[in-house]
Amino acid sequence: MAEKALHRSHIPLRESDMRSDRVQNLQVASPSSAGAGLQVRDLTVTFGRGRKAFNVIEDLSFEVAAGETLGLVGESGSGKSMTAAALMGLLPWGGKVSRGSVQLGDTDITRLSNIALRTARGREIGMIFQNPLSSLNPSLTIVQQIAEPYRLYLGASPTAARKHALYLLQEVGVPDAAKRLDDYPHQFSGGMRQRVMIAMALACKPRLLIADEPTTALDVINQAQILRLIQRLQKEQGMAVIFITHDLSLVAEYAQKVMVLYAGKTVEQGPAEAFFSAPRHPYSQALLHAIPRLVNNEERLTDIDGIPPRPQEFPVGCRFAERCPAMTPECLTAYPPRSGDDHHFYCIHPVGGAA
Amino acid sequence: MSSSPTDMNVNNSLVARPIPGMFTRLWTDSLRHWVGQYSHPMTWTGLGLFVFLMLFSWLGPVLYPVSPLAIHANHLLLAPSWQFPFGTDNLGRNLLARMMDGGQATLEVGLLGALIAISLGIIYGMIAAMSPRWLDKVLMRLLDALLALPAIVLMIFFAAIIPLNALSLILVLGCLSWPGLARIVRNEALAYKEKDYVLAARQFGASTFYIARTHLLRSMLPILIVNATFMVADLILALSGLSFLGLGIQPPHASWGGLLNDGLQLVIIGPWWMIVFPGVAIFLAIVAMNVLGQGLLARLEGR
Amino acid sequence: MSAWLEVKNLDVRFHLGEGGLLRQSQGTIHALSDIHFGLEQGQTVGLIGESGSGKSTLGRAILHLVRPSAGAVYFKGTNLTALPEKQMRPYRQQMQMVFQDPFDSMNARMTVGQIIMEPLLLQGIGTPGERWQKAEALLERMGLDRRAMNRYPGQYSGGQRQRIAIARALTTEPQLLVLDEPTSGLDVSMQARILNLLRDLQKEMGLSYVFISHDLGAISYLAQNVIVLYLGRVVEIAPTATLISSPAHPYTASLMDALPPMVRQRERPHLPEPVGDPPSPVNLPSGCAFHTRCPQAEAICSSDRPSLNSVGSGHQVACHFPLRDVYPMKEAVHAE
């Protein structure tokens, strides 16, 4: 890990601030193993038909290699959960992927039939949700729920599945795992339930793990433990992880790549280090400066007036324009073109000078 | 007494003085909002159908001022014709006029009976929900006992001992139907009682009565209305049932159930108009209310 | 010398399940135990703790919404806990609460105007016209359109609703606001908006806040002093800067360890993580409540409950082995 010179920026960060020094920095898998990773191109999800059709996400493109974590950042209404649903093929009724492709390894999962998709979902993609209580079936025991994907997709016998479930519970750090296999979800605390969810998601050793706000409902200490657990398991199993959150500070700690969504479109995207040392889009900047820190907080936090537009009312032109301090009339006429390559953004008045 | 409202205000010129009609505007805006919220094809269909039936019953006699009691001795049991659009019955009375008269009675019983049932149900349910636990338990056990009694038997019992006019039937049917609603009210009230906004109101110094009236009732109003619509349908059906036992509205006054009964008594002779018209009317009234209720329920459940 | 708002030896217990003819009472939750702190006018005190720490209960106890089993709350010298409800009424105007859930804290079937005017209505302040004007004025101060008066909360986002809740709390011109996790569950930019607003309001109106949260970053933005709660007990009290630079209780240090580096802005102390989950509040551990998870617990920690001792100016800790110099003396990162 090379030492990097820090250029002066508004965010006083040192590289050690961006990485927790307890866990090693992950060596990112080289792009030649792209066969094992996720590649999304121009993903667009549409609801409704004919004239009443509207897109909730448009033209999303990103890649996550094995062993890499992508932080998908957005606030409510940005479409981040819809992205996760689209990747899993679990769009709500009325929605469909109208454009684009999702390549997991060498299969395009948007082109799969329902049955094939179900298999892919179980074996290749694991997902953890925000609220572990409502995501677990309260009338089934833990072992039944963890073993289910294993039995279904890998055809294991009940004994083998049980052994595997025990192993998984121990891996995720549930104390007294052997005794707790036959417990019900309500007998676990919030943090433990989230660990059970992780165990379920990993039952078939998936290639991709989607974590949709996995720690929002948890206390600070639990949050840190769960995220470090995910990081450790990712390293051991070489998974790609998409970490969906609205909290940039977590992304700084755990992700190698960042993608910021606003109103269904990407506004900025790039390697984490480049992003955090110099965010270019005004929205990303505002998000970063809105986080209260423990010291140096006499200055006001950045807040943005207004609320994001609804999908039915997405404007032509830059969707953030009406809330942006740097707006000019040109921003409203057409969607800003892409600027930059690895670290790219969509703005004609970016922070830090000309596009 | 009051603190100056301009204390905290930054920009005095923007503070409007109370405009005349401000509160009326609040009411119409609210109405528009709630109509928008609960509008649903089924709701409008049901409502429209029921309103049509009501207009038929109450506006009808104004437009077709024929007496339902007049006997035409040489026009007995005639099929529908221009002179008698719905035909005549075995006493030569104009069936269309009788249908309108009967409609008034039937719909009255349905609507007012439901109103009584709901009022009693709300009172009992609220008292149970807002009282200390032991009293709530007692009241609910009492309610369980009441619910265990077979309603039909009681209906027959009471109908046999009271004068059988519209008013008394309304009272009896209403008083027999409230326990079911009371249970719903009490359960809903208990659920809403724990909400933060009730706690906030208590923090502002609200009395129990204020909380019950303003917060709890308002929150449970939609589900109550849904249940009310189903209750109207039930009561219309109950009245028809009583009519078959001869315990409904007594002659010469009519109800749709009674007219249906009259027709069925003569079924051997086959005056289809005496059976079909009342039957269809009852059917439409019940369907209208059920569809209205289902429409509201659909919106409530977020569909 | 007593502070403007003073909590003395406060103890709150809840009984689970009813005892009765046929059933045993299922135990007591000891929600708060021996809470003791003061707040001066115009200042903010932050209450930090995880769920089960009793912080919400403390907020409600201060406002007399929950009856304490022991101890007292003194406001401007008067013992509030001893007052019957009738005499409490005038005090209710002076202390208000903002709740955590912006969805449940307002009746969705009342218009925003009715919601904001409700406290005035219940306290009998002003004529309907005056109440309307005041509510409109507050809405504008919160940055919302006046037309919101006739709209319903369901038409607004979480952040906007929370601002409406703050407007409602301000109608009776209170001097003390208890804010129970007002920013949890909100997006980051909405959170920032609310925090800025609270800061501005405090300067403009001289409000005092009891700010309850599990987010140390938000607390440090607003509070001059911080109280750390664990399982209903105070484990540490300190001025904010002191707490952040030298936390003395292992629990406080572990809370800060768990923060992402961007928020923490400091080098990390190398304390091992606390082990396992917090115990249930029904069966509190003996001795120090944290000893079951504390990385440096010793024998005495399970037998003797530590009392609050002073370790610096305004800094108190309840620990047998308080930490010292957890953070190296080198300067904060931002001094470049």
TrEMBL record, chain C:
Residues 7-256 form the ABC transporter domain. One of its GO terms (biological process) is peptide transport. One of its GO terms (molecular function) is ATP hydrolysis activity. The keyword ATP-binding applies. Transmembrane segments: none annotated. SMART domains: AAA. The keyword Ribonucleoprotein does not apply. Gene3D superfamilies: P-loop containing nucleotide triphosphate hydrolases (3.40.50.300). Pfam families: ABC_tran, oligo_HPY. Keywords: ATP-binding, Nucleotide-binding, Transport. NCBIfam families: oligo_HPY. Belongs to the ABC transporter superfamily. This is ABC transporter ATP-binding protein.
